[in-house]
């Protein structure tokens, strides 16, 4: 062995193991794998990282240091691989560049993305919630617009908006493989949600519908905990309890407040939904003077079932949208528009005709008053027959366009925010629409509502104010949850 070592000169060893001769060989992949090459060359199995293509191995010191008997060689400068080189190197192990950067962005233990993007998503959700409240308030100011016509108009405008986004991003409208059934199911559930909202709002009092539909954040949080393993500790439970307390004070359900009358605030709260669709289907029917207030409107069984199903449908839509977080939002925008357009057309030509038929039969059973049948009097049947007309005048067109634009913005904001924010936290943040609706109610319907027996009925009721404060505190606590709760140290909290 000593004779062989003495015959091997330093020059010949350098010529055999030089970097140029090493690059002239075949690719390292021909040796089988990078790990096997390290086991042959490096005696100490030192971790070796590759750079970009044909850049060679960086662990040159361990390559030249075989033993003490060999002549010492001049060390080669070690080049530290950059982030770009690491990403290309990791791609050889089946790890894509996007996976590498996703890990780099989550090194701080944040499971939901960078902190800056997260708080921007929080802000977008709160602005979207305010848009839902504003859209409902604007719609209530123009009751002559048919909700079905407005729904079809909004769906068509959303569908037209999604086409340039699909072409600009070169996204397939059918969705990527592996996500298509979720996309189709999202559009189908959106249609079913609108149908359930119609059956619930049109047949039940707002004080019954509103508290049931507003339980969507609780159901979404439970489903997110089961499906995604979202952390739900004591802090989140206390926040949810605070939200429910504010919801009860704002909606005032009849079992807890049997002597309170329905206010315009409850009518508006019953129309709030996930994507801000126009659902002003409620038609007030004055109670009989001989009937007590709690028994004025009997509860419709079909409407009650639809109201109970609607929160589950909205929660499933949020979960499916979260599962499609890798899909471009324009594809989700396209399929939700198709689902709402389908139900809008069905309601426009089927459900509304049934209402017109019922109104005509009711008018036929009534005996007309000769004194009230003048040339200037308007037949109620004609009003209902014109309810499916297109918008007339600049006011209705402006209101319809504003409602449609706000609804599309809500859809885009919620879809994009679900890529960063967990579903349970997002719907709790979106409950800020209750606070925004209360503020708009004071601005639009502010002042004295009624004066009876010398008692001034003020719109600023203490129950509404307490409910708005509770919901606002719940939203604030949800926003600062990451700053207070340490899931690693206090998992139970």
Question: Could you walk me through the main structural features you see in this protein, from its secondary elements to its overall organization?
Answer:
By secondary structure, this protein is an all-alpha fold. It contains 22 helices and two strands. A two-stranded antiparallel ribbon has the order 1-2. Helix 10 runs antiparallel to helix 15 and helix 12 (216-227) runs antiparallel to helix 19. The radius of gyration is 33 Å and the shape is globular.
The number of helical elements comes to 22
Spatial order of strands in the largest sheet: 1-2
Question: What proportion of the residues form beta strands (DSSP E)?
Answer: under 5%
Class derived from helix and strand content: mainly alpha
Q: Give the SSE order as H and E letters.
A: HHHHHHHHHHHHHHHHHHHHEEHH
The best one-word shape is: globular
**Mean residue pLDDT:** 74
Number of strands: 2
The percentage helix is 55-70%
Oligomer: single chain
Question: What ranges have pLDDT less than 50 throughout 5 or more consecutive residues?
Answer: 1-113, 287-295, 359-386, 447-459
What about the largest sheet? 2 strands, antiparallel
- Please compute the radius of gyration using only Cα atoms: 33 Å
The rounded distance between the terminal residues' Cα atoms is 68 Å
